[in-house]
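A favour, since you know our structure tokens better than I do. Would you make up a two-line entry for one protein for me to read? Write everything out right here, beneath this request.
=====
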Amino acid sequence: MRPLFLAKTMVCSLAVFLCGAAAASATGVIPLSFDEIAGRAGAIALVETVRVRSDWRTSPQGKHIVTVVTFKVERTIKGQVGQQLEVEFLGGAIGGLVMDVDGMPQFRAGDRDVLFLSPNRNSVAPIVGLFQGRFRVERDRAAGTERILTHSGAPFLPASAGIRTLLSAPLRSPGRSLSYSQFESLVVQTLAQSTPATR
């Protein structure tokens, strides 16, 4: 019965921890447009996951589990990050005790992503929009290119005519997700058109 008791305690601690978080968007995921995701990011980088581990942290609300993900930075699109990046995400598993946080992205070694990192990078909201600021990079063997997927693994497609006009090259098929090069061009041009207040 003790593991169950601990698990319930962790759920209660998590609720208190989240209620005490300063950012409202960390506790309730508000849908963001692509412009908002890009504008709110403190840094944007193409990364590869090299290590994932869980650890304990102590806060005024008590102990909680975090997952520490180490990324190799392949390319920086916005802001400044080093060649290696370490980011903490609230939740994880240690010794059979699981602390789940709904909507928190999960990574595995070898994953490649474009991450839109929050300026403060705290463990509650290290990525803009929780999971919304994660775009997966997947090899398209048939086309011989790298394609961009959303956090859920769905193809990333231009959502509006405004976004489509920013693309340097048209999509070959309406149902195909953007290539990495198209996606990076979209990010750069979106940032260039944003106002200083949203950068």
Notes: The longest strand covers residues 43-59. The first helix runs from residue 2 to 19. Strands lie at 43-59, 62-78, 84-90, 92-94, 97-99, 112-117, 134-140, 145-149. Residues 1-27, 160-174 have pLDDT under 50 and may be disordered.
